[in-house]
Specification:
The protein is of the alpha+beta class. 37% of the residues lie in helices and 14% in strands. The protein folds into two domains: 52 residues, no CATH class; 29 residues. It is built from three helices and two strands. It has a two-stranded antiparallel ribbon.
Length: 107
């Protein structure tokens, strides 16, 4: 298996939500998102296997970077336009932001 292994410290629910978000964005838009090959539980772990092609920005010319910048701006506008009548992410799970869940210096 190629790529980088990431072990999430935030729980299987976050990865389930990420998998659902990838499926959702692919279904409703033309935004390029990683291909989701699998999202499954193995023993006490939850695994998300994805892949996406691309190039490193530093190898692009300034004109090519300008095209990428425009595409990213369009993708952000598309994402901002997505509305929902329900609370929670695409998986239906409500996940508080990490900064809310982590211990503070005052704890």
């Amino acid at each position: 298996m190629r790529g980088t292994k990431h072990i999430s410290q935030l729980g299987k629910e976050r990865l389930q939500n990420e998998a659902a978000a990838l499926r959702f964005i692919r279904r409703i838009s033309n935004i390029p998102v990683p291909i989701l090959y699998g999202a499954f539980k193995v023993d006490d772990s939850f695994m998300l296997i994805t892949d996406i092609g691309g190039v490193v920005l530093k190898v692009l010319s300034e004109d090519e970077k300008s095209v990428v910048r425009t595409e990213v701006e369009q993708n952000i506008a598309t994402l901002r336009g997505i509305k929902s009548d329900t609370i929670g992410g695409p998986s239906g799970i409500v996940l508080p932001p990490y900064r809310v869940m982590r211990p503070s210096d005052r704890d």
